[in-house]
User: Fold these one by one.
Assistant:
Number 1:
Amino acid sequence: MLPALHAVQARTGWVSQGALNYISRRLTVPPAELWGVVTFYHLLSTTPRPPIVAHVCDDIACRLRGGEELCESLERLMGAPGAHGDNGRATSWMRSPCLGQCERAPAALLTVAGERPRTITLAPVENGVASIVDLLRDPPDTSDTRLGAHAPDDRRRLVSRSVPQVGQAGLRLLGRIGRVDPTSLEAYRASDGYRALARAVEIGPAAVIAEVVASKLLGRGGAAFPTGRKWDAVAKAEARPHYLVCNADESEPGTFKDRLLMEEDPFALVEGMTVAGYATGCERGYLYLRGEYPLAAERMAGAIAAARAAGLLGADVMGGGFTFDIEIRRGAGAYICGEETALFNSIEGKRGEPRNKPPFPVEVGLFGRPTVVNNVETLVNVPALLREGGAAYGGVGTEGSTGPKLFCVSGEVARPGLYEAPFGITLRQLLDLAGAAPVRAVLLGGAAGVFVGPADLDVPLTFEGTRAIGATLGSGVIMVFGESVDMLDIVRRIAEFFRDESCGQCVPCRVGTVRQEELLARLRARRPLGSDAEEMALLKDLGQVMRDASICGLGQTASSAVESAIFRLSIAGRRA
Amino acid sequence: MKPEPIWFRPPPPPSRPPAAPARPAAPPVEVSIDGQRATVPGGATILDACRARGVDVPTLCFLPTLTPVNVCRVCVVEVIGSRALVPACSRRVEPGMAIQTESERVRVSRRMVLELLASSVDLSTAPGLHDMMARYGARPERYGRPAAPAAAGERDRREPGHHEAPVGERAETVAQPVKIDNDLYMRDYSKCVLCYKCVEACGVDAQNTFAIAVAGRGFDARISTEADVPLPDSACVYCGNCIGVCPTGALMFKREHDMRAAGTWDESKQRTTDTICPYCGVGCTLSLHVQDNRIVKVTSPADVSITSGHLCIKGRFGFTFVEPPGKDSD
């Protein structure tokens, strides 16, 4: 259903009632249910919108780099955000949650509807509001405004702004980035590509799972579940068919690792998914790709087509006697669809509401079948670990967190970007790499993560190390806040984010995120209801009910960053 | 030599429709509920187990006749070893589960869920919830005075991912004008706790009409027809099963709504008489709610196997023929 809605939105800039009626008849979906789905996603509009819309990020990473000022100038120039309807203008602008371009903030995303629909990323917005206005007037043809030139030197220079370690030896996950042409299967094969799949077919599915178990690989999406155990459970599940889902709906504010992997090394993900499908007995893999990532979608579609043409996807992959193919599903603007069961519902054409667990996806997942769900970074680890051998790979990092890890460093540092380091590097060492001035706070794990202060900089960046200080590694977000930041404004924006992104299904999260945002507005205006102590008690109560009684991880972590900022860093008492 | 053909006699036609084969019974499970050891049928939910032993677990979005959606989170209980609380209505018992139904964590969550609901929704026609709030000490007034209600249709036009920044001194609510677009029933979404029951009853759990669904996202999520069209333009067949399952009076007979508005609704003067619907051969049980010798509402008992509480438009609304002509125009 989402592909149909996307098609209408891309062609006309909004989804009309007539289009909905047509989709409803063709897909035999009740009109009311279709209405429920289309009103769930913020990249789909049910009211007329101009064909060209700029979505300007005002989320926390961009806020540190002038995103809010950008929005304010646009408002002066073009009127209130979201001004739509037939007001004679062919363009409009809106505020947007994190666009996943944090290393090159501030960012904007242009959606151009029409005969040749396209989505264009503008990051960084270098010349302020003028560059957005120029783009609105004359949108370019490419999905990425950086990619005017494709010469290898230019590529390396452009990519090295996002991946400062480009060209450095010994990188397991980022090794090809900036060096190997991401659009060429030959180039990928010439740089160790598809050696892992060849080895997998040689040793058989059970041995592949044994290697993954031996590597002690933990999921990199944020929950850190052992990948080998997940694969084993699905491989042994009796119900058929099995499905593989790659979660590429990276929407956690501050996270951009999966985007860069897909943009710059798409074949590695295709190979990782193929190995996973082979090991767990899946014939079909879905790549649920964030709707805001046009270049990643383009590169992944290209890589999948090239692999299919070369017999590396489809029937009888590599002559190994197994069938596997990948289908891309694009999200349409909903953070919650990164939650695995919400993602299933989204693929199935339902509202992206999380399901209650248990049953877990390994038993009852996509279309009610046993399903492996893995994050992009997790799957990109797989070819690397098969080439090196599981046990050797498990020797990298620490006892409890093995292998290399990607860190998304953004905010007030000299060299923001994606960094690869073995687990165990300390926060201070990583910040030195990125060039941080004295910091006031560091957000670990994104909006669903935890703020730590200058006293915590020696924490080893491992799952167990961050847990020991009551923090989390999450998806690898390291966002740095300097001394002059208005932290209450940052925390308020995080609360706003959760209020916008809650699916609305369960009471603690639906109403709790509203009350949390209201409370922070009061704190910021220094107008508490009752006493400050009562407000703090209220904040704790809200945090507890959301953490304890929400259905999914969104609600359970919606107060995490807020509470850590207020209670750990005492930002409410110390105003900027 | 040709093999002898094998002839067989087909079994005699069954004299009654064949029953489904008996489902293999799951072995009973040992659990502990509030410290008491209990043997519970395998496959039962925690709620089944508790209620069978007389342990009271409050519920809001649960009804035995509907598939549990576990969205209200009133029924959460603590399972030792589980990171978060679990919904009793849908979580099935597992061997060795240690369940706490009234621990401090459980009480805090229930109190907060009730506070959050009462501070955002008009619960004036949901008497059961008031008892629950008293039991858990909910204080919805600590979120500030309620904000001004939304204009008609305003909440239905809200876009996902965008909202006006709150001032913070007033608590946002779902308050909005009542929707009256037909003569049979009205929808007052100021009273909606979004328990999903009406959507389930309209869908596969009872009516299979699919006239309504949840639309929007987050706090702006709401029950809606397609594009918020009035009920007469929607797929609604006026079975009224959504009214039958609504726990808060957000969906109400037009007659009850008018009487409440006129101040003449008085439940103490009402008697309920069970009878059989005269319209067709199914024989649904009707409960006629009568006040001052006038039928004011029709329901059906949920525990009657014929209806499970559900009726059709005729049984639910087709009762005015028993009234003297000209007395009431509805």
Number 2:
Amino acid sequence: MKRFGDVVAVAGLDLTVSAGECFGLLGPNGAGKTTTIEILEGLTPPDSGDVEILGMRWQDGAPGRALRERLGIQLQETQLADKLTVSEVLGLFRSFYRQSHTVEEVLALVELEEKRKARVVTLSGGQKQRLAVACALVSKPELLFLDEPTTGLDPQSRRQLWEIIRRFRADGGTVLLTTHYMEEAERLCDRVAIMDHGKIIAQGTPKELIASLGADHVVDFALTEGRIAKDLVEILRQMGGVSAVRTGPDGVSLTVVELHRALPALLALLKERGVELSLLTTHHASLDDVFVALTGRQLRDT
Amino acid sequence: MYQLAVSRMREFYREPEAVFWVFGFPIVLAFALGLAFRNTGPGNLQVCVAGGPGDSALAATLDSSPRLIASGLDTATARLRLRTGRIALLVIPGDPVVYRYDSTRTESGLARLQVDDVLQRSRGRKDLVTVRDDRAVAPGSRYIDFLIPGLLGMNLLGSGIWGVGFSVVQARQRKLLKRYMATPMRRSHYLLSFILSRLVFLIVEVIALVGFGWLLFGVAVRGSFATLAGITIVGSFSFAGLGLLVASRAKTIEGVSGLMNLVMLPMWILSGTFFSYSRFPDAMIPFVKALPLTALNDALRAVMIDGAAVATLGTPLAVVVAWGAVSFVIALKIFRWR
């Protein structure tokens, strides 16, 4: 547990991450993900509770340093020294560790070879982020902590980072990452924990969590006349193939088991009532929908 | 630690403004002040003779004296010049001859003595006692000789506190300190790397300023260079410690700037950089002497002007070392790493 003044940032959670696994902490901004990961990294002392990393506990002095030798850490807001070049930054971080990759090796890992002589200030957002991850990888870590590694990046840079993480895992590394992109968690993580207000509200493999919705499709629609009648919602709930109905300011969201039955039925019903659609989309159920189902809030809005 | 120190240096010399403020500015300052105070002795005195009987003869007599420049002017213009300080004294011919001057101005007092002497002699006054002038120019008595060691001390203080303070707070603000904490780096290495990189800059600073003073104004170092080097190293370490202390808690650049000024401004004024601290009231002197910059300036002047040996500088050096050691230890204790 961790308090900041009156605010309880993290209120008791239990996690186990196994070796070789990629574990994702998911949640909206302010859910307590960063506080949690920094407690695990030994940067923020918890007010209460136990942390065990690679069979060790955080201590000051030599034992703590020995543990740090085995970890790679990327923090959310670090801005590296602008005036240094990429290879100078890596050389500096390399010098902190007894055992490490050479600068060239780690440049190859994150595909920044062409930028080795470039000053940090001239790098793009995606390149800076890859450099930050490179600083975490330089120590040949067994366990890699990544705090929102892809937040604010364009899709291409994001994919490049995913590729870096995949390669690290292919070599047997363990990853613990935080993100508020559910898609990222679905693609990268073996297991995820969804956090909200400092608590874990669901935990499991992405597949298990999505399956817990009891349906695999989501239909979103909105009507030209705006609000939807109360009785219509009731009829929808009773409709075959529909497992849940949720109304929001932007429209209605149906969780659906059999799309091929539910969708024609929905269209027929709306035609019969004489109301017109202004929006209709369907997608496979995702972790986003799990979050909405658990909290009643959209992840992106928060 | 070596890597940290090298990084620190790279960050510094790639910041052209910082380089100017540390190296260029003191030299510009020394140049300007050196020119302004080139002659420490009194120069020629400007006096005026107002219109009246025998005015041009009187002006010629006064002008013939090597220390006086005399000219004849009408009374109104002459009075205006006296009031605005362009002449030191106005002579109004007649009987009696009137000397008009501001008795609180040193120059005017000198001019009165000089003018009166020339005038009385020209009318036939004889000296009753034979005197002989024995003029001595004491080595290192010029203002620039006093100034260069002071600027050196001030520069060591400024670059120690600015150099260390800003980089620490910037690293803290950019969460870089926290990132370093996430590595096995030893904390003491981080702090020591500042002191190490200061040492390298120190050599450049000292050579630049002392070399400049020597080349342009002939300011010699009378003591040994080894002693001078030793004193500057001690001073530089001490101020780096002070800089770490100033930066140990501050979270923002604005916050640390205020603290730095709070530390440096009193020392610039009190510690005898531009003028001797003996001008302050006696009751203040012990406090002034306890300041690290005062002690350092005293030691630097003792070496550069008087050619003192290390052994005689125990007290000021002890003061400097004590400040540095105490602030380093406190900084290490209270340092905010996040």
Number 3:
Amino acid sequence: MSASGHEAGLFRRLAETGRRPVRLWVDGQPIEALEGDTLMVALLTQGLVLRHSEFGDGARAGFCMMGACQDCWVWTEQGGRLRACSTTVIESLRIVTREVPWPALP
Amino acid sequence: MASPAVIVIGAGPAGIRAAARLVEAGLRPVLIDENERSGGQIYRRQPAGFTRPASALYGSEAAKAVALHAAADALAPRLDYRPGTLVWGIADGAVLTQRGDRLERLPYAALILCSGATDRIMPLPGWTLPGVYSLGAAQIALKAQACAIGSRVVFMGTGPLLYLVAWQYVKAGATVAAVLDTSPSRRRVLAAAALAARPAVLAQGLRYLAGLRRAGIPVLTGVTPLRIEGHGRVAGVVVSDRAGRERRVEADAVGLGYGLRSETQLADLAKARFGFDAVARQWLPETDADGRSSVPLVYLAGDGAVVRGADAAELAGRLAACAALRDLGHAVPEEEFSRLRAALRPMSRFRQGLENGFPWPGHLAAMLPNETIICRCEAITAGAIRRTVAETGAPEMNRAKSLGRVGMGRCQGRICGLAAAEVIAAARGVPVEEVGQLRGAAPIKPLPLTAELGPDEG
Amino acid sequence: MKADVIIVGGGLMGSATAFFLRRRGLSVILLERDLVGQAATVASFGNIRRQGRFLPQLPLANLSRDLWGRVPELIGEDVEFLASGHLRVCFRDAEIGRMEQYARDCAPYGLKLELISRNALRDRFPYLSPEAVMASYSPLDGHANPRLAAPAFARAARREGAVVVEHAEVVGIARGAEDFVVETRAGTFRAPMVQVSAGAWGQRLSAALGEDVPLTPAGPQMGVTEPAPYRIPEVMGIHTDVTEEGVYLRQVQRGNIVFGGGRRDAASLDTKRATLNPLNTMAQMPHLRRLLPAMAQLRVIRTWSGVEGYLRDDIPVMGPSGVTPGLFYAFGFCGHGFQLGPGVGATMAELIATGRTSVPIEPFHIGRFAAASSTPPGPQRG
């Protein structure tokens, strides 16, 4: 996947595209980000969604990018939570934007 | 345990200059910052491995940014510097911090809050769609990540940041579809005298505007935002122009913001007294000219106290440190106080000019369709707020929150609070200052349940 | 202004009493110092729990539980009552005996508890701590929304014809020749009967009326997490003698988990504020994780407190005055009043209207402090 301006994503890279690639997994699919990317940029240069509103009003992709609005918390496959705008990507991170890893009813 | 240190919260322009002044006096203050790297939002640094020069990142402010970063780096070894650390509560003369899963309780001899500001937001239908970001976010994407928030971006709102970010996008090679300003241009003419208090800043603003026009970017003033359209992502922005005609601009992203609002939750937790600021149209902690709050040994500086911009923040940070030092019994020459106070005076005048030239469009709240989401955390609509007010008689913010959930979510009303107050005020037919402000509560940002006090604490 | 009854204090107790008095045809003025339901009620956990209560309180709690189930038809509003079950969980073998004893003791009162141990517990409630040794399950208990309850009852009372006056702080109550004269910041009101249901402020009024009680104001330490999918129907609490361990939690249908328990903090009758000490929140977190391990994935997004009144013996003051005819009390519910609210309202209305109650409330009579005899055992928590 191209690091510069992939049209499927929300964000468009304008510069600094010579960084080392980092691989992570989103909803089970591999994506390639760049070292130094925030998780938000990694996900939104190639996708449109970070999370879904708990109250049924649709997809969310963050808003303030400075840790104020709290609208970009994503789940890891292991059930951890990361604030996408203030987390730097690391190799092999596994993120879910759909199924929330939370106890099932018996 | 060592005697408590002076604690400075926030490593932006105000916090760095405050910490520097404390170090000059021979202290070793604690400097706590939520970001991993100092500089604050305005002088936010790009991550290691990025190569753009300061001139590309900060434009005309590059020299100031470089100087502030150099000052912060030189200072770091002489501080107890704690980056990447959230202050989530203040209680009994101590701040409560969190980094990862580690909690700490740090008592303070004096506390200087330099918590900065975030965008002032007036919601509109569609503003929760992927692709809509605050102006600050649009700028951070560019500055810290070399990204544009979209391939065809509309900037909408008002204030100097609207033009600055649009211009930065153009310069960086992004496509800007339009700049849509709610303030009519005649407001700037009326405010010109006050804006002339800082001629260089005024001239800069005019240069951005000229640059945008030269680049052929449509700039509309005096618009009324109607909605952001799209399914699952932004497809366009619809406004009513000065003449009342509906105008639609194709876009896949929107940068939205109406000036800045001070981040005041920590001041609230420190029990500082607040008053309604008629210029900012916001409840702000009361301070004296030097930044003393109503609580002894708690000080405020920078945009978190009152939005006057980065230059003023540097001065106010130093001044608040001087005040703290004097109150703690250190000698501070009177001359330093008077010099800093004098330097801040035109900044205050300029601030009034900006608020007059680019006013907060609180009146738009009354016109928002009922289905407009106001509180994006809890998905509470304008209609739901109006219903709460009508059916329960909720007279003020905290009651409306208690009965209708507005401002109750993860961000604690940080994003929606001002707009929600306007919706409530309009529904009641009273001035916005009569509906009060949301009370702050710890944790001011989400606190992981896994976090624990360190072994030497408690 | 004059009515049959003046109620001083518009929390859940006062609001519910006003509603049930109107149902009995008496005219009512409800006087609230600030806004209805703003002090103790709003800060309540929202527990509709009977198990663990002081046994003589169970008839009242049972009555109240029946009323909670009928709230929408009674008052025409939903206050989010869910009979989703209540679990008290213990982590020490030593506590099993006490749990078994309570289950035996409460049965004659009509409260049927199911004791579930270790493996069965994990099969039934897989999200519970694997360390739990036993739980006592009360299937018909549950939870409701404490932010909505008192205002909803007050609105219903108003619809039934009660006069509800907010911002009417009482500055004096005197017994005249025929009526009580209640002076407030919103005017003077008269009635032959008065009920004091002023929560933590009840003691100031009762003392002024010649019946002092040993009441201490305090604030519960409450918090809530961000939302997660709704998967935990039961309210649950830790059954323990160690104050810090005694946390409790419930997931609301929107997904947030509300919690409280452990230490309380100071509350001021003068500022009308109770302290939420963030150190208490920190102290709650390990016990919450222990009770519901999945909760460790979540974040606390908000905390709060409110002014509650605690009597020395940890049970409320409820019933007629011991000295003044026409005067009634229902205050100081010691942090466990929310469940009782509708039952207190119905019972006090019955008492005021008929002079009798269908459920026994003698143990709560204010005269127990005048007698200064031995204090009865208080309720258990969790």
